[in-house]
Amino acid sequence: MPVNPDPPRDCPRCPRLVAFRETWRVKEPDWWNAPVEGWGDPEAWLLVVGLAPGLRGANRTGRPFTGDYAGDLLYATLAKFGLSEGMYAGRPDDGLRLTGAFISNSAACVPPENKPLPVEVHNCRPFLEARIASLPNLRALVALGTISHQSTVKALGGKLPKYRFAHGARHDMPSGLTLFDSYHCSRYNTNTGKLTPEMFEAVFAAACELRP
Question: Does 47 have pLDDT greater than 90?
């Protein structure tokens, strides 16, 4: 397990993702274009696990879920449940601060077409495991989407398919932590009605029952 729960800026583990980020470093030299570090309250009791940085969101700004639509819904929901202070404005310097929550991803680097390969998620899992271990007050996790769910289950010492993904599902993990599932808060899922704000909020309401 890596000592640092965040990959180095030039992490070499996934050649396809390395090539992709190098391409974008040339195209957009002012963007972050590197593994996106986890962000939030180091005393968090709740960890939100996303899929991967968005090309023009976190890959551009360097902060998870910042600068694209998915962040609009996620940060509005965190604010509603008292898990943030300040106003989200889609910039890493907007002054927003998480309180009791932390955000990470299953894959730290932006993937082509927003689809990390299974081997890439596997390569990044030690960092997710290290992040989980770094949060001493952690009680609950919310996994956004099937891929994030599967990687988080494995990071928590669970075995598939015993813990199956389903929106709104709750899983009591062998580690003593509790995992909640949600569809990803992507624009596609909300535009198609697969995920509504009310459905998303219900998952966080359930997780907040474990708030210390």
Answer: yes
